[in-house]
Each structure stands twice: as C-alpha cells, then as structure tokens.
Amino acid sequence: MLKADYSVNIDLPQSEVWSYLEDWSHWAKQVPGYQTHKKVSTADSIWELHGKVGTITKDFKLYVRIVEMTSPSTVQFRVRDSENRCLGSGCFKLSGLTSRSSELTCLLELELKGLTGKISAPLIGSLLPALLEKFVQRIIKPLKEADSVALSL
User: Fold this and answer.
1) Given this model, what pLDDT does residue 148 score?
2) Global confidence as pTM
3) d(C-alpha 1, C-alpha 25), whole Å
4) pLDDT per residue of the chain (153 residues) written in tens, 0 to 9
5) Rounded to a whole number, what is the distance in angstroms from the first to the last CA of the chain?
6) Structural domain for 56, as ranges
7) Are 145 and 26 in contact (CB under 8 A)?
8) 130 near 39, Cβ under 8 Å?
9) CB-based contacts of 35, cutoff 8 Å, min separation 6
10) Residue 130's Cα: distance from chain center in Å?
11) Structural domain includes residue 129
C-alpha cells in the first residue's frame, strides 16, 4: 500500500475553502495530468488523465466515487482505474484554525496490483508525496487568487 499526506495552512476562513472544495469538479481539474472529467452521478465521476514518468507516457481513466461529504470538514473518496489494477482511497480534511485561516489536509492510499503494479510501485511511491503536494497547491491557488482580487477591490 502506497501512502502520502500533505497539509497546508490557508489564510481564508473554513467556510470559503469548503464552498470550493465541496464541488469535486473544482478539484478534479487540479489533478496533475488532468485531461477531462465526466459526472456519472452525484457521487460518481470518470476522470481522464495523462501520466508521464521519464520517457513513459500513458493515458488512463480513473473512476472516482465520493463516499462521504460532511460539511464543512470532510470529503472521502475512492478511486480505481478501468482495469482495477490501481485501487485507492483518500480524503480531504478541512479545519478552521482561526476565523480567518484554515488547514487543509489531503491523505491518499493506493494499492497497485499485478506484475506491472509490483514493478512500478517503488517509482510511484517515491513520486506520490510530491504529486499530492502539487495537487493540493493547485486546489488552493484559485482560492488565493480570488482572495487577492477581493482585497484589491
């Protein structure tokens, strides 16, 4: 099982961060390698991604299911690829630090199956923390930009 987590403090109230986070289509677009996504139901979606590691590239689909959404603090989800060779789960935890700041934590666990999974697990495991950090930083970027525009008005 590959695991990674990343936390960041944001100079925005929990309610503002939550209003962005609760719509998964906002953060789907921030996944590294994002191409497109399609909503299947309120809980299910299909994300098309393009992955590149060194000279190896691959297009793949991730099936994402929101399994719990508890306002204003938690989103839990499951992911799998189309061949069930990559299975995982994750969550976002959002907590208010003060009336003007929040902490966002993202946790992700992946299990890679089959021979390809066993071969690629060490490489993916070493890249996962940096990918997760990049993902969370991309999620909060539009929030920070919107806040700076609001402050300048």
Assistant:
1) 56
2) 0.86
3) 27
4) 999 999 999 999 999 999 999 988 888 889 888 999 999 999 999 999 987 766 778 888 999 999 999 999 999 999 999 888 899 999 999 999 999 999 999 999 999 999 888 888 898 899 999 999 999 999 999 888 876 544 444
5) 48
6) 2-148
7) no
8) no
9) 48, 49, 50, 59
10) 12
11) yes
* Whether 59 contacts 48, CB under 8 Å: yes
Does residue 82 fall inside a structural domain?
A: yes
* Residue 153, domain member (yes or no): no
pLDDT at 87: 94
Whether 124 is in a domain gets the answer yes
Count of domains forming the chain: 1
Distance CA 142, CA 101 (A): 16
Q: What is the CATH number of the domain that holds 64?
A: 3.30.530.20
- Distances 112 to 9, 77, 121 between C-alpha atoms, Å: 31, 17, 7
Q: Give Rg (Cα) of the chain.
A: 16
